[in-house]
Amino acid sequence: MHSLLVIVPSLRIALLGIAAIPFIYYSLALLSSLRFFLAGRRAASTAPAAGEFLPPVSILKPVRGLDPDAYANFASFCRLDYPEYEILFCVGDTADPALPVLQRLALDFPTTTIRIIIGSGRQATNDKCAKLARLTDEAAYEHLVINDSDVRVQPDYLRRMVAPLAAPKTGAVTPLYVPTEVNTWVQRLQEAGMLSEFYPGLFVAKELDGVKFALGPTIATRRSYLREFGGYAAIENRPADDLLIGRLIAEQGREVVLLPDAITTVPDYQSLGELFFKRLRWMTVMRHMRPAGHLGLIFTLGLPWTILALILAPNALIAWSFLGGYLFVRFALTLLVGQFGLRQRGVWLNMLFVPLWDALATTIWLASFTRRTIRWRGQSYAILNGQLVPANGVTPVAAASAPVER
Q1: Using one digit for the tens of pLDDT, what is the confidence trace for 197-244?
Q2: What's the pLDDT tens digit per position in 292-318?
Q3: Is 396 helix (H, G, I), strand (E, B) or coil?
Q4: E strand or H helix at 170
Q5: pTM of the full predicted structure?
Q6: Which of 52, 62, 235, 270 gives the lowest tally of CB atoms within 10 Å of its CB?
Q7: pLDDT digits over 86-115, tens only?
Q8: What is the DSSP string of 41-74?
Q9: What is the phi/psi pair of residue 334, to 5°?
C-alpha cells in the first residue's frame, strides 16, 4: 500500500511536468515571432530604394477549375506596376471552366502579355507540378514568380517579390499571406489558426533550422535554380510541392527568404467540414513526409495538456496557473503575430476562437493517424514512399500540349 501511495503522486507529478512542455514551445514561438518581425522592420528601414533591380519576369499560374472571385484574382496581376512581365496560365484541357475566364482576361487587358497553355503534356500524379514543369519550359524569362490561383495582389507585388533575388545568395523568396476578408465564423476560426499556430510554427522552424520551405501562394526564384535539382519534373509525383521546392533550393546552398510583408488570398472554403478536410489533407501529408516532426506536434498542442493538468492538479493554484498560463501565451501569440507583426484589424476577435482552433487542431492531428489516403480536387491519392499514387490505381493520362493563342 505504501509503494502505491508513492507511485501515484510521482506519476501525477511526472504528468504535470510533461503537461508543462508546451509552455516551453510557446515561449520559443513568442521569441521567434518577435525576432522575425523586428528583423523584418530593421531590414525595411535600411533597404535601398525600390526599383533598382527590375529584371523581366514570367508569372506562372497553374489553374484547375475556378476558385472564388477567380476573375478578380487574375485581373490583379494585369495591373502590376512593373516594367516588363508576362503571365502564363496552364489549364488541363479545353473543358476546364477557367478557360473562358482566362480568354476574357486576355481580351480585357490587351496591353498585358498573357499566354494560355492547354495541358502539361506529361503523365504525373501531381497535376500542379506537371503544369509548372511545362510553364517553366515555356517561360520567356529567367526570373519566375509562381503563385496559386486564389492569390490577389497589389500593384507593387512583383517589385517586392523580386527585389531579394538581387542578392547572389538568395535562391527563393516566399511571403506570408492573409485572407482578403474574414466574414464568417469558419473564416475567423481559420485565421485564428494561422496567427496562433501556423505562422509561429514557421518562425520557430526558421529560428532552429533556417528557412527550408516555401509557401504555395507565392514563390519567386530563377529558372536556373530550379534546374539545379531537376525542377518541377523531379517532384511531379510527390505531394507538398511548395515545401519541397524551398527545401531543394536550400539544399543547393541558397537562402530562402521569408518575407514578413503579407500578400492576400481569397478563402477557398465555405464550411467547417471543408476547412477540416483541407487541414486534415495537409496534416496527413506531413505525417508521411516528416513522421518524427509530425509525432512531435503532440508537445505543441497546449489545450489537451492543459485539460489533463486541470484534472491532475493537486490544488486550485496549480490548476489556475496552467489554465491562466495557457490562455495568456495563446492570446499573446495571436496578438503578436496578427496585430504587431501582420498589422491586421480585429485580431482580438480571432483570440476568442483560439481555444476552439486548438481543439480542432488536436482532433485533426489525431485523425491524421487514421488516414491512408488524401483527397485533392475530387481524386483520392495514397502516399507510398513519399510518392503520390492514385488510390484507384489509375495513372492520370497526359493532357494535351497545344497552346491557345490570346
Answers
A1: 999 999 999 999 999 999 999 999 999 999 999 999 999 988 889 999
A2: 889 999 999 999 999 999 999 989 999
A3: coil
A4: strand 170-179
A5: 0.90
A6: 52
A7: 999 999 999 999 999 999 999 999 999 999
A8: HHHHHHPPPTTS----EEEEEE--S--TTHHHHH
A9: -65, -45
Distance CA 50, CA 48 (A): 6
End-to-end Cα, the chain, rounded Å: 85
Which is it for the CA torsion 390, 148, 279, 34, positive or negative? positive
Domain ranges of the chain: 2-404
d(CA 35, CA 173) in angstroms, rounded, equals: 19
**E strand map for 223-359:** 255-265
Indicate the SS3 state at residue 40.
Answer: helix
* Bridging pattern class, strands 379-384 and 387-390: antiparallel
What are the grid coordinates assigned to 398, written together? 497526359
CATH class of domain segment(s) 2-404: alpha beta
Strands, sheet with 387-390, edge to edge from the N-terminal-most edge strand: 373-376, 379-384, 387-390
CA 331 to chain CA centroid, Å, is 22
308 phi and psi angles, rounded to 5 deg: -60, -40
Rounded Cα distance, 268 and 137, in Å: 29
Tell me how far apart the alpha carbons of residues 351 and 193 are, in angstroms, rounded to a whole number. 10
Contacts of 209 (CB under 8 A, 6+ apart): none
> CA 293, CA 206: separation in Å to the nearest integer?
14
In 109-168, which residue ranges form alpha helices assigned H by DSSP?
127-138, 157-162
